[in-house]
Design brief:
The chain has 163 residues and is mostly helical. Helix content is 48%, strand content 5%. The protein contains 7 helices and 2 strands, in the order ααααααββα. A two-stranded antiparallel ribbon has the order 1-2. Strand 1 and strand 2 form a beta hairpin.
């Protein structure tokens, strides 16, 4: 953007770019997933921040869709950090107490809006999620994710990679 551009011009450019990227194919896929454009934007923004590598994006999206399907909270640390308005490496138990509609530990379903911008890879991963049975994932120190079907398996991996 140019330094002297006004907010309206910037917003119009951003909307125009979104219309270029969010094709009719993507709209049709969102409908096949029974999701609104807002849903896809919100989930893509979460997937973007939860994963470091594009290879993980469809699988992480699959985990979130699995949770949504069974009314399980998303329990996304990045939404809690957004609610707190801070960036840090680790979310603490006290952080999970933040009273916000962005706190996906306390509220079932998607938060009320996106938590940031997202890449085309996150958008594609959200629109074309991997079909899997995973309900849990964690990012290892190298940034790649590990996936689990059960809380017990997840706890083992948390202790293995994050403690």
């Amino acid at each position: 953007f140019l330094h002297d551009e006004g907010a309206e011009d910037i917003i119009l450019k951003m909307l125009s770019r979104f219309d270029e990227v969010f094709t009719e194919e993507y709209l049709g896929q969102a409908e096949r997933l029974n999701r609104t454009i807002d849903d896809i934007v919100i989930l893509s923004s979460i997937v973007e921040q939860e994963t470091k590598y594009d290879i993980d994006r469809p699988k992480v999206a699959g985990v979130f869709y699995n949770r949504l399907k069974i009314d399980m909270p998303l329990q996304s640390d990045v939404t809690v950090l957004y609610a707190l308005g801070i960036k840090k490496e680790r979310v603490l138990y006290k952080d999970l107490e933040v009273d916000s509609k962005y706190n996906t530990y306390q509220h079932i379903g998607l938060p009320i809006g996106p938590i940031g911008s997202f890449s085309k890879a996150s958008l594609k991963g959200t629109l074309y999620p991997e079909k899997n049975n995973y309900l849990y994932f964690i990012a290892k120190p190298d940034g790649y994710c590990v996936y689990n079907e059960t809380f017990e398996e997840h706890t083992v991996d948390v202790n293995k990679y994050l403690r």
